[in-house]
Design a protein that fits this description.
This protein is mostly helical and about 110 residues long. Helices cover about 60% and strands about 0% of the residues. Helix 1 packs antiparallel against helix 2 and helix 3 runs antiparallel to helix 4.
């Protein structure tokens, strides 16, 4: 049977866990690793955007969400995060880009 987990996805999940716990320095290190693993992937930029928002750097966050969108216009989480930031709905929460993995663990 093929293992569905890949190292890239694994690090994404670790990064999201760190972001949710507020461990921003460690999250940033993992995001840098993700970028080096796949320079053309939108996910690291989306996570960088969330990291910047958590630091109160909304302008930089927007740049990262736009970068993710530029790399893959079909990548929904970055679009939703950018839209949320632009219209000022900061209370709506981040789209981390996980496909509700928490809920699908038993699936």
């Amino acid at each position: 049977s093929r293992d569905e987990k890949n190292p890239f996805q694994d690090i994404i999940e670790q990064t999201i866990g760190l972001l949710k716990k507020g461990e921003l320095e460690n999250a940033e290190k993992l995001i840098s690793i993700l970028v080096s693993m796949d320079i053309g992937a939108p996910e690291p930029h989306n996570l960088f955007g969330i990291l910047c928002e958590l630091r109160g750097e909304d302008g930089i966050a927007r740049k990262h969400y736009r970068a993710a969108y530029a790399l893959d216009p079909t990548y929904g989480p970055a679009c939703r995060n950018l839209e949320r930031l632009v219209i000022g709905q900061k209370s709506h929460g981040f789209d981390y880009g996980l496909f509700n993995t928490e809920k699908q663990m038993g699936a």
